């Protein structure tokens, strides 16, 4: 055989390279494909279990403490939403200007850090003086959160 033929030889089944076929049963049984392990669910912040919290309905990542709730009377893109002073375990997209029910605002979509679901938005800037209180606050749509820990 040539040096090139030796390099192209496929062990243990030389059949693909033109060599003799391997007898049945000569090869060990094929190993099953390894099961894909999902990464463990870890969140950047865990809120204390003693507090009433809101969590992502899709992956249960903590989002906010009840004490951070400012208002329940907001409207999101797809239904009712709550306004929070601060949230955890969320990422923020780029800011863009949107004409909302209360006027022009600069907002950035927020998403769950764990499952990447878009939850609502963060008010970056309000252009009307009556809406300035929203700046730096967060809207989370009710359809994306669940109440946990100590609700009656």
Automatic annotation (TrEMBL):
<dbReference type="GO" id="GO:0046872">
    <property type="term" value="F:metal ion binding"/>
</dbReference>
<dbReference type="InterPro" id="IPR039058">
    <property type="entry name" value="Yippee_fam"/>
</dbReference>
<protein>
    <recommendedName>
        <fullName>Protein yippee-like</fullName>
    </recommendedName>
</protein>
<dbReference type="Pfam" id="PF03226">
    <property type="entry name" value="Yippee-Mis18"/>
</dbReference>
<feature type="domain" description="Yippee">
    <location>
        <begin position="52"/>
        <end position="149"/>
    </location>
</feature>
<dbReference type="InterPro" id="IPR004910">
    <property type="entry name" value="Yippee/Mis18/Cereblon"/>
</dbReference>
<keyword id="KW-0479">Metal-binding</keyword>
<dbReference type="InterPro" id="IPR034751">
    <property type="entry name" value="Yippee"/>
</dbReference>
<keyword id="KW-0862">Zinc</keyword>
<comment type="similarity">
    <text>Belongs to the yippee family.</text>
</comment>
């Amino acid at each position: 055989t040539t040096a090139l033929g030796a390099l192209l030889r496929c062990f243990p089944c030389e059949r693909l390279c033109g060599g003799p076929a391997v007898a049945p049963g000569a090869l060990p049984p094929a190993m099953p494909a390894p099961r894909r392990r999902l990464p463990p669910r870890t969140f950047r912040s865990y809120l204390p279990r003693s507090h009433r919290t809101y969590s992502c309905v899709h992956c249960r990542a903590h989002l906010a403490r009840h004490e951070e709730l400012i208002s329940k009377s907001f409207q999101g893109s797809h239904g009712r939403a709550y306004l929070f002073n601060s949230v955890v375990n969320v990422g923020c997209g780029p800011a863009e200007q949107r004409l909302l029910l209360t006027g022009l605002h600069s907002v950035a979509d927020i998403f769950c850090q764990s499952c990447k679901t878009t939850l609502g938005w963060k008010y970056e800037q309000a252009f009307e003086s009556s809406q300035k209180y929203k700046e730096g606050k967060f809207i989370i749509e009710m359809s994306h959160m669940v109440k946990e820990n100590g609700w009656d």
